[in-house]
Each structure stands twice: as structure tokens, then as C-alpha cells.
Amino acid sequence: MADLKTFTARNRRTDYSGDEPFIPAPVTRFAGAELKAAPAPLPSTPPGPFGDLSRAPASEILRIVEQVTKGWPNPGRRRTAVRRVISVLEEMPGDTWQERWQASGFDDEGAESVSVLAREGDRVDSADLIAGIKLAFCLRVIRPSISGFRANRFRDYPQRFRELQPDPLLEKFFAAADAFDVHHMHRVRAKFDLTAALTTGGIALEDLTPSALLHFGMESKRLGVTHGSKAGATRFAGLGTWQVLDQMGHFPPGTPPTLRAYVYRGQLTVTQLVDRYPIQHQGVRQLLIDYLTRRRAGTDYTTLTALARQLAKTFWAKIEKINPGQQDLALSREVYDQWREAIKRWDRDESRTRADDSGILLAVRALYLDLHSWAIDEPEQWAQWVVPCPIRPKELKGFAKRKREIHQRMSDRIRVRQPLLPTLVAHVEGRYEHLTGLLKKARAVDLGATFEHDGHSYRRTDTDRDHTWAKSQDEPLVRVTDEGGQVLNVTLTEDTAFWEWAGLEILRHSGIRVEELCELTHLSIRQYRRPNNEVIALLVIAPSKSERERVIPMSADLFHAVAQIIRRLTSDGRHVRLLNRYDPHEKTWSEPMPFLMQRQNGTQRSVISPTTFIHMFARSCEELAETHRAFADMTFTPHDFRRLFATEIVNGGLPIHIGAALLGHLNLQTLQGYVAVFAEDIVTNYQRFLNHRRSLRPEIEYPEVTPEEWADFEEHFDKRKVELGNCARPYGTPCNHEHACIRCPMLQVNPKMLPRLAEIEKDLLLRRKRAEEEHWLGEVEGIDSTLTFLRAKQAEAARLTKRPTTDLGIPRPRLEETP
């Protein structure tokens, strides 16, 4: 098990270790915040422990440095460091130290550290420059930009800043941060983000607003300089700082307790949904707004959003692009045909063809038909838009066929994955058990000690960081070094492995949707006592897609997984914590509830999202593909487990109406579409159907076969035998293709006749050569057609030769039953 890969929340799917230049990540996730990010306005009196030093002479600054560094280690060297920085800035143009700092270029976006001014190879000079600029920032002599500040790597900046600021509110923040119930490194980051925001903003803590902290976090993310993140990572700065300030009561009443809750804007209005797309005709724009407003009462937000996208973007915005002068819904045939051609390809990637556009056609046709029916009752509002629908009914023919094709593809998908499920389960469970044992052994040894686990040697890391964690935490993070020298954070990887195992077990033993998995709470666990006093554990599933609450009796495996989750969440003696969960589909926050699928993620505790489980299962399949060829390009989605569960219970004999109730289907046909029927089930059920049908029909319909009928039957199969194989025409029918067997689709070539096909092909090629020489173009065309059919049958016969021979054994008569 030592060669298993491990994944944590820190893993990134993008490789930033190459030589490609760093491109800051676009900040798009936070553009919709209700309160926009903005830097805090500069106060009329800039904060400073020794007043305004922006124009102070160098001698005054050095005198202050000498005063504040008394009692510090190496005070003389610190004065030398500040003198070194001042000497550099004095050579720059400007009347203030701030102007000189900006003229130096060290405040620009993407600027280098001041350590580049150090003498070559002189590490002491480089450290002095960093220490000098740090004191200049702490004394508020210079107000750096975020990029200029983060270009320099400071050590203990929050502590130095705190010591030099006579701010009781800052002392209160540090005390609250020390009591913050997170890991030590997240407390450090919260302090660093606050002091960095105050330094770069040129403000005191009392002037720090939610908008200002959001601005600092967004800029840090955009520049890729968030504290504690690698280059290129998209981590957002200020998460822990926000929570500490909220606990202090620093922000105004009504401010959300977390930055994430503050950022998400919630549901858009119908007008906002339509205005996301460029519609020039204001009359059509208002029509779509009115239409969607009326449809909103009978649909959910996710469906409404999709409908707005189909009508406003995919339909009308494209129509205006094709015909800018379009004034109503009456489309000419030319415009309509161009639109049909345009929707065949995806907007984001025009090289990709849309597999099925029937959903778009149905939405647009529903718009026209709804206007027709609504205009009867409300002609003053809808009648002016009533025109014939350009989508003809025959264009939607084949919709049932496409649904059958989708069902067939999904059934094939489940048939492929069913035999692979035990391998995936064993892999996920084995990794979790391995990491659990590794964490237990590693936690029991001292830092730097070597130990054995599962036949492999490990050594617990022994760094300054590990010692700091050991002093500040009751259960510090455990890191080990394996035999290959790779450092593994066992605490984080074991936590990720547990939640992947728990999610997999619940999904495959209950058949619930992944959204319902994330919505499970401690209140979902109930019990039922039968009349014989037997207690049955129940899992109550909250209304989800069908808005239908249902109850699932828990099997032993399902109950074990749920019990392990509760045990993990209450291991510290607390109850399951109350959290608000964000629904990414409905764009709403839930009330505080004891959700089961919750974990500590950095500075905040949150409910695991459905996307996280999707990535977990995909990474496990990628890992299995290295040793199991069947997993190559294979993924298991959470919905696959739902279909596998449905297939198992129905094929296992559970009545289909009970299966539909367990899965929350309102229609039995929906469950039937989930069930992947296998060949054995087809034969068994079809044979049962035939026996039942025969028992209901009169015996006169099953008379004995006469000799004449049997002779005709045998003669038919004799006449189907031809030189190259067998003719597959229906029973009792003559040859309708004038015995042109090579071209006939009914011909089934015997693989033994491949040499004969080669002779025929050679003869045809000679005839074609003669026809070309004589310019018999009609003959050439006919021979080419025959060659095409011939080569197709050669390929099919060659494929059949590769099939292994199956020995069915010698048939034996059944022995008569003895009385």
C-alpha cells in the first residue's frame, strides 16, 4: 500500500512546476458580490506610531529606529539595515519617501525584491535590505502596493508590526486570532493578511471595512501572492482574517460570518438573467422577461436559468447576429435555416459539434405555442407576438429514438462499470485503511523517529515547523518521509481518503443523488421499532430533485459508513457542528444545520461540495489505470453508483414500484431507464414471458407440425445456402436481389471462403483494368461499387476468424424423472 497516491485539498490539477511564465489567475468568481471590493479611503491623518514621517529627514528616521530597537537582538545591525535602504531611496527623485519608493520601481506590479540591490554573493547584505524595508513599512514611512509588499519575504512581520503600532484594537485582534479554533498555520496567515492589508492600505484597523478586506483578498489572488500558496494557485487571501474580525464584532451588523457567504450574490432576477446576453430589440427583451416571469412560478431556479440561456442567448441573440434587422418572432426560412446551422456547434468551441439540439428546439417551440395559448386569455399582452412557429413538428420526430439511444449508451456504461466496481471499492477502502494505520503509528513516535508500517519504512519529519506545531496544537499535523524521500502530510491525506471512502459507501449502498448526499444531516438518521421489537435504522432523504421526501432502510454497510462519519465529527466531544450550506444550483444558503458531510478546509469548516466527490473518484480511477488497463480513460461519477444500485435491486428481484420509491422516482419508467438489463436477465424474462403467453392461448394454436410443413422448413434453409456462405433472407421469402450475392446485404460470408473472395477481387481488378483501357466508364463505376461491397465482407469475415472457438460439449438427453 505504500505506492498508493494520496490527494488533499491542496492538490492542483494544473502543473505550475514548469518553465512557463506565470499568468495571474483571473478573478471571476467574486465579480458578482453584492458589495463591491474597493480600497479603504486614505484617512486625513495617516496612521503612524511616530507621526507622519513621509518627509522626515534621514537622521530623524534613524533616531527613531535606534529608539525602537533597544532591547532587540542585534540593534546596531538593524540601524545599519535601515540606513542601507534610505541611502538607496535618497538617490531616487521625489519630495517624499513614498514618491522615491514608487520611482525606484520596487512598487510596480511584478516588481523584484529589494534584495537584488545586495552585493553579489553577500547574503548578509541581502538580509539587511529586507530587514530595513520591513522596518520602513512597520513605521509607516512607506505605503507599499500589494505587489511591492509581497515581493519581499519577511519573517515575523505580524509580530514586528504589532509591536510598533500603539493600537489596542490590533491587540484585541491578535488575542482573538490566538483563540481561533483552527490550526496554528492558519492563525499565522490570518495575522499576516491583516497586517499586510493595513500596511498596503495605509489605514488603521478601525478603518478596515469588508469592502477593503475583499479588495485586498481579490488583488492578492489576482497577483498570485496569497500568503501560504504556491505560484499560480488560486487561493483567496483574508479568509481567516474575516472570520476573526467577525467574531470580534468588528464588521457592521448583518455582515455574513464568512467571506464565502459575503461573496456569493444569490439568485438573479429574471431581468438580470435576460440582460446577461446582448439583446438589441427592447420589445423582444421585455417579451422574454415577461415570459420567463410567468414560467418561474412553475419551475425551479436551475431550470429557469437554463431556459433563459436557451431563449435569450442560444435563440434570440443568435437571430439578431444573423439578421440584425429582425423586429418580431416571424422568422424567414433563410434566417431560420442559418440559425439551425449555427446551433449545431458550441459557442465556446466551434470545432465541437452539439450532440443533440432537441432541448433547444423544444424550448423555442414551447415559447411560440405558449404565446398562442396565452393570447386567447390575455390578447392585450401576448397577441402582438403570435406568429407561426418556425420549428416544424417533423423536425422533432426522432426525439423518442434519441432518448432510446441515450438509454442504450447509459446501459452500456453501467454494464462496463459493474464488474469494475469491486476493484474501485477495494482500492478506496485499502488506501483509507493504510493511511489510518500510518497516521496512528506516526503520531505515536517522536519527531525524527523512524518506524515501519505495512512492510515499508517511514521517518517522521523533524523541522522547525513541526516543532512549532507540536507546541501550539494538541494534535498537530503529522508529516512523514517515505523511502523515496517524499514528504507526506498524513493528517490531510488520511482525512481526504476517509471522506472519499464514506461518500463512495453511502452512494453505492443507498442510491441517493450526490446533492442529497451533501444535504444529509444528523437529523436524517431515524429508527423504527417493529412489532417484534426489532429496531431498524432509517435514513431520511430530504426533498431534492423531485421535491419528494423518502425513507431508506439502512443496510449494515450503509449504517457502518454513517456511524463512522458521526464518530469522526464528534471525536472531540462536541456535537455535530451547525453550518450553512450553499446550494450552487439554487444559489441560496441553507439555515444552520448539522450536516454530516462537513470537514475542516483551511480556516473554515464547510460542507463538502458535489464537485469534490467527482474529482475524488476521477483521481482514483486515474491511479487504478496505471495497474488495471480496464480503468484507462474510465471514470465513475456519483450518478453511476445510483444506476448501479437501481440495476442491482431490480435484477435482484425487488418489485419495481418499491425500487422507484427508494430512489425517489415519481414514474416507474424513470427507474426502468436506470436499470441496465444484462443478457442473462433478457433470456430468463423472455422465456418466462413466452411460457406465460402460451399458457393463456388455446391449445389449437399449437398443433403438431406436419411432414409437409417440416419439409418446406428444411427446404427454405437449403435454398439459403450459397457459394460464399449463407443468405439471411426471412423465412418463406425468395431472393429479391437477383442473386447478386456480393452486393447483397443479406449475404453472411463463411470465414472459410476468404481465399475465394481474394480470387473474386483479383478477377474484378483485371476486369476494371480492361474497362479503363476500353473507356467503359459505366463498367468501371459498377466494378468499383462491387469492390466496395466485397472488401467490406472481407473485413467482416476476417473479424469473425479472430473469435475464439467455444466448445459447447455433446448434448445429452434429459433423464426421465423417477417417481
Overview of the structural elements:
The protein has about 800 residues and is of the alpha+beta class. It is built from 31 helices and 14 strands. Strands 1-2-3-4 form a 4-stranded antiparallel β-sheet. Strand 6 (about 535-540) and strand 7 form a beta hairpin. Helix 7 packs antiparallel against helix 8 (about 185-200), helix 13 packs antiparallel against helix 14 and helix 14 packs across helix 16. The radius of gyration is 37 Å and the shape is elongated. About 25% of the residues are buried. Mean pLDDT is about 80; it is low at about 1-35, about 805-810 and about 815-819.
Query: So what's the overall shape?
Result: elongated
Strand content: 5-15%
Q: Work out the oligomeric state of the chains in this entry.
A: single chain
Strand order of the largest sheet: 1-2-3-4
Determine the number of helices (DSSP H or I, runs of at least 4 residues): 31
Structural Rg:
37 Å
- Uncertain segments are 1-33, 805-812, 814-819
Distance between the termini: 59 Å
Number of strands: 14
Biggest beta-sheet profile:
4 strands, antiparallel
Helix content: 40-55%
Name the average pLDDT. Answer: 80
Helical/strand content category: alpha+beta
Give a short summary of the structure.
With 819 residues, the chain is α+β, with helices and mostly antiparallel strands.
Which helices and strands occur, and which strands form pairs?
Blueprint lengths: L57 H11 L6 H15 L7 H7 L19 H16 L7 H5 L6 H8 L3 H11 L5 H18 L8 H14 L15 H10 L10 H5 L6 H6 L6 H15 L4 H22 L10 H10 L15 H20 L1 H4 L16 H19 L3 H24 L5 E4 L2 E5 L3 H9 L6 E3 L5 E3 H21 L3 H5 L6 E5 L5 E7 L8 E4 L2 H14 L12 E2 L4 E2 L8 E4 L2 E4 L2 H15 L13 H14 L4 H8 L4 H7 L4 H18 L10 H13 L1 E2 L2 E3 L19 E3 L4 H21 L2 H25 L18
Antiparallel strand pairs: 1-2, 2-3, 3-4, 5-6, 6-7, 8-9, 10-11, 12-13, 13-14
Helix pairs in contact: 1-2, 2-4, 4-6, 6-8, 7-8, 7-10, 8-10, 13-14, 14-15, 14-16, 19-21, 21-23, 21-25, 26-27, 30-31
